[in-house]
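Notes to self after the call with IL:
- keep both proteins in one doc
- input above output, always
- annotate only the second one for now

Protein 1:
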Amino acid sequence: EYDGERNSEGERHGRGKARLPNGDTYDGEYEHGFRSGRGTYRFRNGACYMGEYLQNKKHGQGIFFYPDGSKYKGDWVNDQRHGYGEYTYANGDTYTGEWFNHNRHGQGTYVYKDTGSKYVGGWVDGNQEGEAELIHLNHRFKGKFWNGNPVGRGKYVFDIGCEQHGEYIESEQDKGEEEEEEPSLLIAPKWKASEITKLTLWTPHGENPPSP
């Protein structure tokens, strides 16, 4: 069903309301038969998109409310979360930063609601990867991440004014038999501390830490 403006060719053009065969509804702007411009699309499952369209695709600025209570507010390209945006998850966690092809990708900040901790740094295809800082209540970790885990050299900075340098190494089980690939993925890397120093300038590119 469609109730709204049409052009001389009879295409939906201008403002209108539509009810789709699957029960979804759209209230907004059309151009030459396509949803284009601003509009609100309500899904039968309870989800809702309010924002910009281009030729039936979410494109531009928009807010998407998901059925589980989570929401995304930000840039869309060709129906995908793409550009810059903020996602609030059902558990209250938030991610604010760059998106690429529907995934967290680039630089972004993830805040864990339960602990107040936050990850500030790189993302690749939805995973924590690259140089980053993991900030907790009274200390922080600076280093590199891969696939959601810290790897290699890094340091913990404590609010009392000191730092612990060291590196994350794969635990011993990882280096054993190659037969069982899967279980090794569950083993978190181990922190191996090297020295404690006063506060220093440091980057994940490496440096010579001062003597303790």
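Protein 2 (the one to annotate):
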Amino acid sequence: MCHVIVTCRSMLWTLLSIVVAFAELIAFMSADWLIGKAKPSSSDDVDNRTGGSQEPYHPTLGIYGRCTRISHMQFSRRDTLCGPYAENFNEIASGFWQATAIFLAVGIMILCAVAFVSVFTMCVQSIMKKSIFNVCGLLQGIAGLFLILGLILYPAGWGCQKAISYCGPYASAYKLGDCSLGWAFYTAIGGTILTFICAVFSAQAEIATSSDKVQEEIEEGKNLICLL
């Protein structure tokens, strides 16, 4: 018989697992890893509302994508266009970024799998006498290691030609040049830290769902057990 067990600690772990997976996925897909040096507006780049020149813009560069401003000659204005600069894996600008993409992709796939499984831990807490919480916590720790490897290798690719075109000639491995780090990089770091927090917190979720209070509720014949 399936017993639905909901505790504060197990629910918090589930929510954090889902948030971490989505945060890492969004960061990976974003082009806002590097913010390039400001590009001055051209003489025909006019703001239609004010009649004056638009502010200089900052192109952004991700692991496999980029955002830049394109001209519309017919309307004498510019729009920001975002999309992948690499049509396939081999066209990613740096070998280090290719390795980063692999490590991050593997880590994110593990996190997404754990997030999916975590939703069902309310009804199924063990498989083959193994705690799902402990198994998921172990997988989250492994995913965190992949994420760390990817984030360590990413700055090594700042010396590639693509990064130099955005960040200037002084850009090199682990040196930003004229660029600055975008929100996606910081989100990836924050998600990695939360991944390890989830891995540790999974043990607390397991303890909460297997406590004596829960066992008492099961012995009383309750199928829905909610505990603080």
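Annotation: Residues 7 and 227 are 5 Å apart (CA to CA). The domain at 4-36+93-226 is CATH 1.20.140.150 (Butyryl-CoA Dehydrogenase, subunit A; domain 3).
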